[in-house]
Amino acid sequence: MFDKMLQISLLYDFYGQLLTEKQQEVVQLYYNNDYSLGEISEQLSVSRQAVYDTIKRTEKVLFEYEEKLGLVEKFINTQRDIEKILEIAEKIEHHIDLSKNDMRDFQEEIKKVRSIAIHILENSP
């Protein structure tokens, strides 16, 4: 995939609601707010080791969810496919040589494909 921070953020976006409240809080503080282990332990009144253990267990759980459900991988593949659709539509729109009437109809269809792809991209998590 990509670097660990981005991986965990994506996994959290998809599976965060499946974590305990404590796990959610620790992940939010550590990954999203960039708190150190010491800062989190102070804020939650627990040891640094407890924070570290919670982070490691939560990472493991998130990766297990992804291994079983594969939602992030599906999302990334869908995004790539949609981007390919948009690239193809743009190439076709700029390089095809049709009569003016055919071209107008064809361009309308291309615009619909582009519109749908953009809608999917804008409305995906």
UniProtKB/TrEMBL annotation:
A Pfam match: UPF0122
Q: What does this protein do?
A: Might take part in the signal recognition particle (SRP) pathway. This is inferred from the conservation of its genetic proximity to ftsY/ffh. May be a regulatory protein.
The cross-references to InterPro entries, in alphabetical order and at most eight, read: RNA_pol_sigma_r3/r4-like, UPF0122, UPF0122_fam_protein, WH-like_DNA-bd_sf
* Superkingdom field: Bacteria
Q: What is this protein called?
A: UPF0122 protein Gferi_01530
Q: Which HAMAP family match?
A: UPF0122
Stated family: Belongs to the UPF0122 family.
Q: NCBIfam families in the record, alphabetically?
A: PRK00118.2-2, YlxM
